[in-house]
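Case study 2.
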Amino acid sequence: MKTAQIVIGLGFGDEGKGITTDFLSKQNPESIVIRFSGGQQAAHTVMIGDKKHVHSSFASGALRGLPSYYSEHCTIHPVFLYNEKIELEEQGGNTELHIHPLAKITTPFDVWQNRNNVKNLDHGTCGKGVGATMKRNEGPYKLYAIDLIAPRQMLLEKLEKIAYYYGFLNESEIDEEVNHYLKVIDKMEWNIIDYSFLEEYSNLIFEGSQGILLDMDHGIFPNVTYANTTSKNAFEICQKLQIEDIEMYYVTRSYSTRHGSGWMSNEKELKLKNNEEETCVYNDFQREFRTGDLDYDLLNYSLKLDAAYSPNAKRNLVVTCMDQIEIDYEFEKLTTDFTEIYGSFSPDSKDFKNITSLFQ
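Prediction:
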């Protein structure tokens, strides 16, 4: 019987989905890791001994040696993908990647739009073109993964029309961007295949993007992401594959975080230790990385919300960065019944521990 584990962030992202996915990859080495939302804006850090990789265009089992699959709900930027492929190969990771034919493809013009739209910058952006890609694909100027292996003239025509859609009229400028883009596409081997491919695996690991509180349907607009960050998409894929044995792994840091603008409860500057490997730092697009105390009411909100999308699943809690702050946890305030509670005590998943007994 096929099984699945789904990793979901309970907050505004940056909870530790990468290290949790790596932990599950270590426990289930014959699995494939599936991204079911978001895309190249992810920055999921995995450390294995002296090896470290920040996964964006590959799922967070890649450094451990597992293959990746990007679903139709994701975006792919071929240039970002190619650059990460080289980095991952240098670390000895697995760069096998399969992509659903209807995954959305990001172009250089989408990235430009994300980085130059004043309203978008005010609302918050990672600057990787994900939001612009998703919005463009709601209209007639669509570009899918299947188009990467279409006849070249057809792909070229679509790219030129997307450039015009964003107001690019300088032919030489368009040609320069498109030519580089096409050269990178030609360097990649594209494995474009639908969900039937996943039937080859007895266990699937689904890796979420960002967090429930940034969900496009449930976050506080306009400071949301252009994706369903609940288990909605993953559960629907499981249903298509007739997988009923599903475990949820809900992830939170030992404190609250938010990278960028928007409402945040319990915000305050915390004195953290052992956080030298923090990848969430100030940048020109998201700006400040914010911290605060855990909000148990907000955790309960996220857990109850996601349960509406994942009925009858087993539920586990993962608390990361437990080595960075000393606090008295109040998990008795959480109203969800968890099968297990795990804690991480370093950036390496080897320091994951089952701490269920501490809170019974």
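The mean pLDDT is 92.
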